[in-house]
Amino acid sequence: MDSLFSFWDLYLLYDEPLLHHFICLHLLIRGESLILTASEATLPVVLQQLAASVEDINPVTLFKEARLLADATPRSFVSLLERACWGWGWGINEKVSAPPAREPSLGLASLVPSLVL
């Protein structure tokens, strides 16, 4: 339970709206060999085991690794992720309490006009 409280303390402290994506990415990378070697039939069990193994990870280490992944991610992808999630873009390294004022977004349709029929 202490690990869970530490996780949420750090999550709130970092105050980065995209960081959870990089935390999930780190967890997938950590279990990459298990995922890639699992058969289709055993994949659900392997994913459950990976989810259960999160308790063994030090939250500070998890957040440091997630930040390293975020820092190594091209800015263009981060912008695309921001627009896909919220319809607006601002940097993962910028501290902004709210998104900039903008017109309402059309979501993914505005990102890929060819998808709009």
Count the domains. 1
Count the beta strands.
Answer: 0
Low-pLDDT segments, ≥5 res: 102-117
Structural class: mainly alpha
Q: Give Rg in angstroms.
A: 17 Å
How many helix segments?
A: 7
Backbone shape:
globular
> How is the biggest beta sheet arranged?
none
**Relative strand content:** under 5%
Determine the fraction of residues in helical runs and give it as a percent range: 55-70%
Order of H and E elements: HHHHHHH
| Mean pLDDT across every amino acid position | 76
Distance between the termini: 50 Å
Brief rundown of the structure:
This protein has 117 residues and is mainly α. The chain has helices spanning 2-14, 19-30, 32-37, 43-53, 59-72, 75-86, 108-111.
Structural summary, described in words:
This protein has 117 residues and is mostly helical. It has one domain (2-115). 62% of the residues lie in helices and 0% in strands. The protein contains 7 helices and no strands. Helix 2 (19-30) crosses helix 5.
What is the topology?
Blueprint: H1 2-14, H2 19-30, H3 32-37, H4 43-53, H5 59-72, H6 75-86, H7 108-111
Helix pairs in contact: 2-5
What keyword list fits this structure?
disordered C terminus; 117 residues; single chain; 0% strand; mainly alpha; globular; 62% helix
